[in-house]
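Anyone opening a protein record will find just a pair of labelled lines. The record below illustrates this layout.
***
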Amino acid sequence: MNKKQAFIIATLLVLIVCAGILATKVNSPLYVDSTEIQKTDASSSKSDFFTEQKLKREQRYATDVPTYKTIIDDPNAAKETKETMAKKLQTLTTNNTNEQKIEAALQGKGYEDSFCQISEDKVMVYVKTAEKLTEKQTKDIKNIVLGITKIKDVEIAMKQ
């Protein structure tokens, strides 16, 4: 077995472990019974928005990081490509950390659930609330985002 095969096996093991951890966090099994899917109604799918979005983000992160690291560690890759991938990896890691910090800060402010998505120059924040946000609440959310990310363009959406 050469280094490439060992790396692929290690990466697959890491992905399996990540999937198990995520399944545990969501309190659901790794498999879904087809009868359970049929029982799902519109109200439960709305309440799962935050969980689904966070799971998608974690899956994307779990697949992108090894890809970037493989390219960075490849001795045959061009120097510019390695530098580009290193910057992308750093941005991805920073954004992921900041998204989680924002969500934790919003939970600390009393919001039942939230989801944050950072793009290059914009932050999208979804908060779970039954009532419309007040101007003070909107300002507080924007201040939290600005304090963590230094990005001023913040869009806030409410989900129930």
Q: What stands out?
A: Residues 79-108 form the longest helix (30 residues). The first strand starts at residue 114 and ends at 118. Residues 28-43 have pLDDT under 50 and may be disordered. The two ends are 52 Å apart (CA to CA).
